[in-house]
Write a structure and sequence with these properties.
0% helix, mainly beta, elongated, 174 residues, five-stranded mixed beta sheet
């Protein structure tokens, strides 16, 4: 009791484990070509499993851009880390990049360390373009061939491909 009033003292239990989170794979590609991953880490006593709560936010939309995350993870007994995969969905209307932010949430069973937020960026799958020639053995006497450009991924939208012709042949003479 201090001067007729009461004083409240908060004691922080430093025996609790400290929990951190980091993006162990910070880039994911839409449609599952490459999933992202966040890893939760703990310090302290490893003899029991540790349930960790987390919040999900960011510019990416759950159940549209990526599979909904449960918001809870258990780090098994004897383990220092456990990971959560960030599996993307095939969102045909995706305009990226978009971010998924994971933040460690409060719990009476652990303390939150300073590194308490991780970000995974979801990128669009870029199409891959290949070029093949129909006839490759055209001699000095001349001839024709067909060049074929082939793309991977969705063909729902136009794709502008730039190419350059090079070599030692002179156009119109060889």
């Amino acid at each position: 009791e201090v001067a007729g009033g009461e004083t409240v003292i908060m004691i922080v239990d430093d025996d609790l484990p400290q929990v951190t989170v980091y993006a162990s794979d910070s880039v994911a590609m839409i449609g599952g070509a490459n999933d992202g991953r966040v890893t939760f880490s703990r310090s302290g006593d490893l003899s029991a499993p540790l349930q960790v709560n987390y919040l999900v936010s960011g510019s990416a939309t759950s159940s549209v851009d990526f599979v909904q995350l449960p918001g809870i993870l258990t780090i098994p007994a004897g383990q220092i880390t456990a990971s959560v995969p960030l599996t993307t969905l095939d969102n045909t209307n995706f305009i990226g990049p978009r971010a998924v932010v994971i933040q460690v949430s409060d719990s009476p069973t652990y303390n939150i360390a300073r590194q308490n937020t991780a970000t995974v960026v979801i990128e669009a799958n870029l199409p891959e373009v290949t070029l093949t020639a129909g006839e490759t053995g055209i001699g000095e006497s001349g001839g024709n061939t067909t060049l074929t450009f082939t793309r991977t991924g969705s063909s729902n939208t136009a794709l502008l491909v730039f190419y350059e012709v090079g070599g030692t042949a002179v156009p119109g003479q060889d």
